[in-house]
């Protein structure tokens, strides 16, 4: 059961009660499909994807004093909470860098107002540029693949993977959870869950 954690171990590791866990589930703070029922030698038990649930519980605990449970549910939802932001607001509030904005406009033509989907594309571009692992040419390739497949990933749990082998880079967009097996000479530069990126973006623009 690699990468899974039992309910009992989760409650102990996260220091939360059974009641908290199921209240958060009812408020849609924890996805239904993270509650995985499995047969064990003691009977049926509930397990969770370990990394995802521990990160989610930590976020809830850190934010619940500042945000209501309904506001948290909105933040964890893949649906956008805003319709658009202007280019001026994006740079003034330091949501994305001027470099990312300039590259986006060079690729698409000058845009003064950005939808949430466009904001997510900008956010991913800026995040990878900030790591120093992606150059401008690769950034243009990232913009191309995100725009080409934006309708296919909209509202779905998806992952973005950036890999490089012998100087040649590739981007992969795939439904979550991705199971990627690569050759030994291939380096995985970045591996993002888009739902987590959406949460981070919502926090930045809230």
Describe this structure in words.
This protein is an alpha+beta fold. The protein has two domains: 4-76, Multidrug-efflux Transporter Regulator, Chain: A, Domain 2; 85-205, no CATH class. It has helices spanning 7-14, 18-26, 50-63, 69-76, 87-92, 98-108, 116-131, 136-148, 150-153, 194-205, and strands at residues 4-6, 36-40, 43-49, 84-86, 113-115, 158-165, 168-175, 186-193. β6 (158-165) and β7 form a beta hairpin.
Kindly report the spatial arrangement of strands forming the biggest sheet: 1-3-2
Largest sheet: 3 strands, antiparallel
**What structural category characterises the helix and strand content?**
alpha+beta
Alpha plus pi helix count: 10
Please give the alpha-carbon distance between the first and last residues.
37 Å
Estimated helix fraction: 40-55%
**What does the average pLDDT come to?**
88
């Amino acid at each position: 059961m690699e990468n899974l954690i039992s309910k009992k171990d989760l409650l102990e590791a996260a220091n939360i009660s059974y009641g908290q866990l199921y209240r958060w589930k009812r408020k849609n703070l924890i996805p239904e499909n993270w509650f995985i029922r499995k047969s064990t030698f003691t009977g049926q038990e509930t397990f969770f994807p370990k990394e995802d649930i521990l990160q989610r519980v930590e976020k809830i605990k850190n934010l619940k004093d500042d945000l209501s449970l309904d506001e948290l549910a909105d933040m964890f939802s893949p649906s956008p909470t805003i319709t658009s932001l202007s280019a001026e607001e994006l740079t003034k509030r330091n949501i994305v860098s001027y470099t990312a904005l300039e590259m986006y406009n060079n690729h698409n033509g000058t845009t003064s107002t950005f939808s949430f989907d466009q904001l997510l594309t900008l956010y991913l571009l800026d995040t990878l540029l900030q790591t120093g692992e992606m150059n401008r040419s690769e950034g243009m390739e990232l913009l191309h693949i995100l725009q080409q497949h934006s309708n296919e990933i909209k509202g779905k749990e998806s992952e973005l993977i950036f890999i490089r082998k012998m100087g040649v880079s590739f981007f992969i967009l795939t439904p979550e959870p991705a199971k990627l097996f690569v050759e030994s000479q291939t380096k995985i530069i970045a591996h993002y869950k888009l739902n987590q990126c959406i949460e981070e973006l919502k926090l930045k623009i809230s």
